[in-house]
Design a protein that fits this description.
Blueprint (H helix, E strand, L loop, with lengths): L1 E6 L2 H10 L7 E6 L9 E2 L5 H11 L3 E4 L3 H4 L2 H7 L13 H4 L1 H10 L7 E4 L2 H8 L7 E5 L8 E4 L2 H13 L10 E5 L4 E9 L4 E3 L4 E2 L2 E3 L3 E4 L4 E4 L6 H21 L6 E9 L5 E7 L7 H4 L7 H10 L13 E9 L26 E5 L2 E4 L2 E4 L3 E9 L2 H12 L7 E2 L6 H4 L4
Parallel strand pairs: 1-2, 1-4, 2-3
Antiparallel strand pairs: 5-8, 6-7, 6-8, 9-10, 9-15, 11-14, 12-13, 14-17, 15-16, 17-21, 17-22, 18-21, 19-20
Helix pairs in contact: 7-8
Family: Belongs to the GARS family.
Protein name: Phosphoribosylamine--glycine ligase
Pfam family, one: GARS_N
Length: 427
């Protein structure tokens, strides 16, 4: 079996680590990969989607998996399908559920999926007039298109809201992603993530998780791609999960089928759960989350390649998930300055203590790393994910932070409170 994975982050390292445990995998390629992935498979840099199609043909790849959203939004699945190559993921049309927040909100409204009240604008003056119409703050302003997880702003007053509108629609800080914006009510509660596998007919819910998006302890400061995560999320009780299934997953699937969208892959539900246990969808993603993947996939006893093949073949109804009862918590180590400016090229020490054995209690997944002069060095804002198992989330956190004490690089930064919201729910 020859497998190819598109992507270069911690999520992709975790996927490769999981797939590598299947003895049927003889060749594994990652485009472009990173310093950690390079010890598990062959990393190649390819510049275009067409180059990826050609590479898959030349190497006779049996199955291709996609980590990040951008290739899906650009139509990679469509190209592979046209070339009669096996790939898991939604086509470009279905990927609009993530690539266009306007499309996603309209999909939710049409299919009666609970979400925040919203208005859509394609002109900055119209948006600003609306913001001056006596609305209750705070509000949420979102860029329509992809913005690397940074296109969502919570604004506290009219002046701040106008500044965001100008930045998005006039100054184009995210380019064409700001051609349209959404202004929506700000929901209060706690966020959680549910991801599920969907093969067009059947679905399979993955273990719940929660991530910490803010850069600073106690959830302060700007949003990031994620500073840490844990699974399961105690907030998502069996009762809450049933409501998610009935009120969100079922109408989502009905909507997909009614619109005849070609969707075989992972569905990510970013949820807000209010203090009254009402559940609203904040966003859809059309792929696995990062850093949620790093705390969800290692808990699965199922083979990830087998699950991926079931998605591609439409045989998910035959699958039964088996989940490790142990809790798993991960802390992201970043370059100081992230999500703003930061330095790269810093040598990372201490990784030799973490060989990432399949049954290991501590796993270290690489995000922004590469091998240079036989050394692992930093290449990004989010550098490593240090994940640890425990009988409780509090114990998992203790084990993770103990492991972090053995790792170092210049200007290393991390939050010291990952999981704090969940600890009191464990009892």
């Amino acid at each position: 079996m020859k497998v190819m994975l598109i992507g270069s982050g911690g999520r992709e390292h975790c996927i490769v680590w999981k797939i590598k445990q299947n003895q049927e995998v003889k060749e594994l390629y990652c485009i472009p990969g990173n310093g950690g992935i390079s010890s598990l498979g062959v990393c190649n840099t390819l510049n275009t989607l067409q180059d990826m199609v050609q590479f898959a043909k030349e190497k006779e790849i049996n199955l291709t998996l996609v980590g990040p959203e951008a290739p899906l939004a650009k139509g990679l699945v469509d190209l592979f399908q046209s070339a009669k190559l096996a790939i898991v993921g939604p086509n470009q049309d279905a990927a609009r559920l993530e690539s266009s927040k306007v499309y996603a909100k309209q999909f939710m409204k049409k299919n009666k999926i609970p979400t925040a009240q919203f208005e859509v604008f394609n002109r900055s003056d119209s948006a600003i007039t609306y913001l001056k119409s006596g609305l209750n703050f705070p509000l949420v302003i979102k860029a329509d298109g992809l913005a690397a997880g940074k296109g969502v702003f919570i604004v506290e007053d009219e002046e701040e809201a106008e500044d965001v509108v100008v930045d998005l629609m006039v100054n184009k800080i995210f380019g064409d992603a700001g051609n349209q914006i959404i202004v929506e009510e700000c929901l209060e509660g706690e966020e959680a993530t549910i991801m599920f596998l969907f093969d067009g007919k059947s679905y399979c819910i993955l273990p719940s998780s929660q991530d910490h998006k803010r850069i600073g302890d106690s959830d302060v400061g700007p949003n990031t791609g994620g500073m840490g995560a844990y699974s399961p999320a105690p907030l998502v009780t069996d009762q809450i999960l049933k409501k998610i299934e009935v009120n969100i997953i079922h109408p989502f699937i009905e909507g997909i089928q009614q619109e005849k969208l070609d969707y075989r892959g992972v569905v990510y539900l970013g949820l807000m759960i209010t203090h009254h246990s009402d559940i609203h969808v904040l966003e859809f993603n059309v792929r696995l989350g990062d850093p949620e993947t790093q705390v969800v996939l290692p808990r699965l006893r199922n083979d990830w390649l087998d699950l991926s093949l079931a998605l591609y073949q439409g045989s998910l109804s035959k699958v039964k998930l088996e989940v490790d009862a142990q809790k798993l918590l991960g802390v992201v180590l970043t370059s100081r300055g992230y999500p703003g400016n930061y330095e790269i090229g810093k040598r990372i020490d201490g990784l030799e203590d973490f060989p990432n054995e399949p049954q290991g209690k501590v796993l270290v997944f690489h995000a922004g790393t590469q091998i240079k002069d036989n050394q692992i060095v930093t290449t990004g804002g989010r550098v490593l994910n240090v994940c640890a198992f425990g009988d409780t989330l509090k114990k998992a956190a203790y084990n993770a932070y103990l492991a972090i004490g053995k790792i170092s690089f210049e200007n290393m930064y991390y939050r010291r409170d990952i999981g704090y919201r969940a600890f009191h729910r464990e009892g």
